[in-house]
Every structure is written in C-alpha cells, then in structure tokens.
Task: structure prediction
Amino acid sequence: MTYIKDEILAQVEKPARYTGGEWNSVVKDKNAVDIRFAFCFADVYDIGMSHLGYKLIYHLLNDREDTWCERVLAPWPDLEEKMRENNLSLFGLESQEPINDFDFIGFTLQYEMSYTNVVNMLDLAGVPVFSTDRKEGDPFVIAGGPSANNTEVLADFVDIFSLGEGEEMLNDLMDLYKEWKKSKGNRFEFLKKAARIDGIYVPCFYEVEYNEDGTVKAHKVKEEYKDYAKEKVVKRVVKDFESAYFPGKLVVPYVNVVHDRIMIEIFRGCTRGCRFCQAGFIYRPVRERSVEKITEIANKLVESTGYEEVSLLSLSTSDYSNLGLLCDELLANIEDKKVNLGVPSLRVDSFSLGLMEKVSRVRKSGLTFAPEAGTQRLRDVINKGITEEDILKSSEIAFRGGWNNIKLYFMLGLPTETDEDILGIADLAHKILEIYKKVHEGKRARKPEITVSVSTFVPKPFTPFQWCGQISKEEIIRRQNLLKKALNRKIKFSWHDPETSIIEAALSRGDRRVGRVIYNVWRQGGRFDAWEEYMNYDRWICAFKEEGLDIEFYTERERDIDEVLPWDHVSVGVTKKFLKKELEKAKKGETTPNCMEKCTGCGAALYEGGICVDKS
Amino acid sequence: MKGVFALIKVRLRYAKGDDIKYISHLDTLKLFERASRRCGLPVAYTEGFNPRPRFVFGNPLPVGVTSECEFVDIYFDKDMDPDKVVSDLNSVMPKGLRVLAGKVLSEDADNIMNVVSRSEYVVKVDMPEEDARKVIDVYEENSPLVIVKKSKNREREMDIRPMVHNLTFKDAAFSIVTDAGNTSNLRPEVAIKALCGQVGVEVKITGIHRTKLF
Result:
C-alpha cells in the first residue's frame, strides 16, 4: 500500500517518484531492527537518485542487520500542496510510513540552495524544526556531505553533524546509538557520547560570540561541555580507499533520473588545487582504487542492476594513473554484455580523444573545456594548470578528429579579474573559431558550434579564496554584458542567473545567524531554491533585512586574513596556514604544483593515506 | 530485419499489479531490458551504431492502470525454452510485475502491435447502482457520444460511441471493451466519463484494470 493514496497520486507529476519498490531497494521487518534511519536528500527524486554517495550510504546502512535505512526525497511542490491539504506527513519510500518516529533523520547536504528544503522536510515530517525544540523520543537530526563542512548555517536545525567521509563514522555512530538505546539513556547523554566520536560535531555544545562589527569573535565549547566536545573537529576520511565500502548492488530507479547508470568512484579527491574549487581541498588526500578492484565492482554491479552503462566517477578522470589499462579491462569485461562505458571529465588531448572513440557508442556529442579564466594571468591566479596553447592545441585535435561542438566554461568575478580578463574570454573563443576555419579550409564543413558558458564566482570555505569578496549584482551583470558584446555572434553565449550565485555565496560562508534567514525564507514559502523557477531573490533579500543582517556582509565583504571564520572549528586536513599561503601566491600570480609533481605540504598528509604516502 | 540466422521470437504475457501501476510504458521497456541483463537472457540486439535489445511491446498501458494481459515479443539468436524465459525473468522482476506465460512464435508471425484491436477493462467506480444502470441504458441506445478532443492548438468534436463495444455493470464496476491499438484507441475512463456526462450523473473512478486484449 502506498502512503499517498491513488486519488492524489493520479493528480501529481511522475507519481512513481513516491511509490518505492524499485529493484534492489531494501525492505525489512521494522520489528526486527533496532534502528530506523530516514535518509533524506533535500531535492526531488530525480536528483537525489542520481547521487552515488546517497545510494552508497543507503546500502551501507542497510548492510547492517540492526538498521533499516529508507530513502526520503523532497516531494515536488504539486504533491506537497496536496500533502498539506490532507495533513499527510513526510514518509519513507520503503515502508511507506511517516518518519516522525524514526531513530534518525539524516540529510546529505550537496548544495546550499537546498537548505530551505531541509527545513521544509523536517516540518513536513512533523519533527520540530529547531534542534532546541526536540524532546525525548524525537528523532535525532543528522547531516553530512560537502556543504556540511560549514556547519554553522544549519546549526540551529541539526543535532549532529558528521564531517568528512561517512563510511566508517556512521557505523561508529550506529553502534553507539544501539548501545545507548538499550541503556534507556536520555537524549542529552547520547549527544555527549556522540560528540566524542572523531568527525562528529554537536552544535548545541558550542557558543558563538560576535564582535561589534558583526564578525565572529569566538566560537567555543560551552564551559559545561568541555569534557565531551572537541575544540576542533577534524573531518574523517577512509584511509584505505582500495578496500573502502562499495555496495554490491544499487537501487535501480524506474523513472528517468538525471544520472541513471552504474557510477564507480575511481579515485577520491583531486590533485589539482584550483584555488576556487572547494572539492579540490575538502576531499584530500587523493586516493585511488586499483584497476582490479574497479573491474570487480563493475562486474558485480552489472549483474545485480542490469544497467546498460558503467560510468567512471571522479573529479578529473584523466588524472587516474592508468586510465588506458582501466578502460581496456572494463571494456573486455562488459562489452559482450552490451554494456557501455562512460568516461566523463576528461582533459582533451589526443589520448583522451582516442579513448572516447573507443568507448563511446553514441554520436560525437560535444567536448567541454574548463579554462575558467580568459587570460594566462588570471589562470595563474586561480592555479588552473592549463595554458592557452593547451586549449588551442586540444581544439585543433578535436576538430581534426571530427568534432565540431565545443563548450567552454568560464567563471566571472574571480579575484583580481579586470575587463581585460573578460575580453580575453572572447579572444580565446575567437581563436578557437579561427582554428576551426583553418582546419576545414577549402572543405565543406559543418558549422562549428562553440559555446561560451559563464558562471559567477562563489567564494567557498576551505579554499584559498575563502577570504575574498564576491562582486555585486550590478557588476556581475555589467561583466556579463561586456562579454556578450565582445563575442562574435557565431559563438553561443550562456550565463548563470546572478541572483542564485549571490544567495549561494551568502549561504556558503554564512555564520550561525544565517539560519534565521533560511527559516524566514522558508516561512515565506521558500522551497526548491536550487530551481530557478522557484528561487525568489527578493524573498531572500527581504529575509536578511528582517533578521537584521546585511547580505553584503556575507557576499561582497573581503574578510580580514586574521578574522575568525565561522568554520574555523572544523578542519578538513588542509591547514589554514596553507590556504593563506595559497592566497598570497594567488595575489602574486604564482602557481603551485599539483600533488603528483610535488607535495606542497597542504596538511592532508595527517591522514596518512593515498598520494601523501605514495609520493613521500 | 532478417539476417543470416533466423531469430527466435518468444511472446510473453505479463501482469502489472498495483505496486508498479505508476510505471510508464517507456519505463516498463527499460525495466524489461535491465531485468533481462540481470538474469543473463541472450536477447538479440539490433544491428547498427547503437545496438538495442530486440523487444517489441504491445499497446501501451496508461499510467495508473493495472493489467493481467500485457504482451511483449522478445527476439533471441538461439532456441529458447519459453518456460525458462518466464521463470528466469520472474526471478529478477520487482514486486508487482509477473510474467505469466510464454510461447515461441515463428519469426514472421505478426507483431503484437498489429494483432490487437480491442481491449477489455474493469473500471471500479464509486456511484449509486441506480446511476450506473442509467449509464448502461444510455449506452444501449447507441446514440452518438461526442467528446471534445484537444490536440496541439485546436479542438475538435469526435463521436466515440463506435469505439466502445461492450459495457456491463456488476459489483460496483463497469466491464468495458474499447478500441485499442495503432489505428484507433480509446481509454476506458474517457468513455465512462462521457457516458456519465450524457446521463448527468457523477462518477468517481477508483481503479482501472485491463483484463483482455483481442
């Protein structure tokens, strides 16, 4: 029986998002488990079910006999409206039961614009939205994922943060919970014990003091909790990635989701240290899986899911140490089962083009380059280890190889950017266009399709640019227009909505007070802010004002290098000292070698894993 | 279509129950493809640049409707025991989908889409029996039953009475036979709602189940 009745399901878009029962979904006897875990993804099914990490933790928890983990996704607004009309509450896909009496409600936080959905889902679940209002018997609300690293913005809503990689930490926490439940202890006792686990942060044990100018004066453990809570919470990592948990099966959705295929993480982390990129720092150290292990996982998953495609997942596929061998091995294993191999995030060079010819059955779709900045000077500032020559050479190889479709990604508003850098984007695009003409000179050729796509720089915590200001809305628009005018009409131009980037910036580097703004926006109807059709900029601006906060304080203000940052109590391994040094080098336009060339002492070596060990 | 080797065609009849009635026709095709790979069925593939497993499905079942008579033809490169195909598939099918029977057809047997022209449904309704009787009476008068059909940017009137072939009422449910297939297709609830409209009675449809294709 579905929790949402037929007469409602018949009226909503894609009802199969809500009915569960997918192949490999896990149904258990609720009376035979100790822990019921509602695992929430604060977006619609199609997005949540595309995330490997979400599926991985789901199966990890369900591999425990004592735990039943269920998936909970945000109902699309059409269903939410009906749920509220009919007093229905948020439910688990597997049991089709409300989640308000589960032991845990867990969120994986993948992007800041989903925060209003977090609040909305708690409310829909019938669980007190604020941590302080939760009583004995209420579920513990736990959050992890990349955005959880700046804990403070959601600190009012979350009881427990798990920082870093959840594979081992969640098992520790579940073991502790089971013991605590047996002991019939109170809520507070569990939080105290949980706070002692490595990587666990319990926000209610800390207090924040502010300076008169609004900056953080101190973020410290409250006197009475000194014995349990750590001053500095260090993110957890899985040291031995080779044998790290990987499920033998994955839920196979019925409905079309964004990424509907087997995804295998071939390595974690990125060696490259681009200075704007949060993923490049928070997932350090770089750790690889062996060809044999990946092949073993692929074979197992093809059999257990029946998927028609295996795709390699990482931050930069070309950096895998033996990509050629890996692809050959995988193809040899899966090709006769008519399974395709997808190799995304490749750097374009002759090797990768050959590889693409080999692996892809689909038509030559298009190539993407991410120079990120228009001039060498600015590319050096952001430490994007790529030269104009690289890009032009790669384009020529691609054009000669029969590609006519190239997409170039850039960021506007990077620190130190001038109009010259912006015009440099147009120059680069024009040079690529010229190369196309040269390659096809005198021949009838398809029209080139060159797209320049620009996003707006959003400064993120734990990057060397965490101190930098974002440019104002007017300035974003001016720079977008400057580029638009400079571009040849044969080049397609697309750009991100500036307003979303501004709100994202405010939430990314917010402090504990910004939680009130999220609550305010949610109260005014804010939902699905990651979706342009639902994001309402004025609602956010108004909420900042109503809560007595200045949004520009969070977005445009350049932070003092010695300022206490709201996330200083968290360590991702990479030290603040290293980030400061990187910022200094950025200002001077100096580059830093990547981890494969040389260890630059970022601090991640403390985990004694991966490349930090291999290279030393 | 015909290569050097003759292909073996197995026609399966399957049921879609309540658990998966919201899975669309296209998603059901995908479900079969993946299930066949899970149980290692040696399905034949199409030639060409982007080979696809060779399945031919019957008339699409509307979302929300259950059925006990859905059909799919699967092509194989070699002889297959249809009973084994049925049991292999059932071992890897999600709850709600059961393959009921299979038989081998000659390769040139007409494909399933072309053999079907009508479909029988049971439509459960919430309405007074008295009203339902009136609906049957109007149906039996055999007078035109006009609905307004909206297509892209125009509306046109259409008499759907010739597309309805049988209508009876028993135990709070209509049994109805309508056109189904490539040339003419009518959803049962459209016919029932139109008839109720003609009579001037309210109807609440609580379930639709396909019982036969012929």
User: Anything to note?
Assistant: The mean pLDDT of chain A is 95. Residues 6-234 of chain A form one domain.
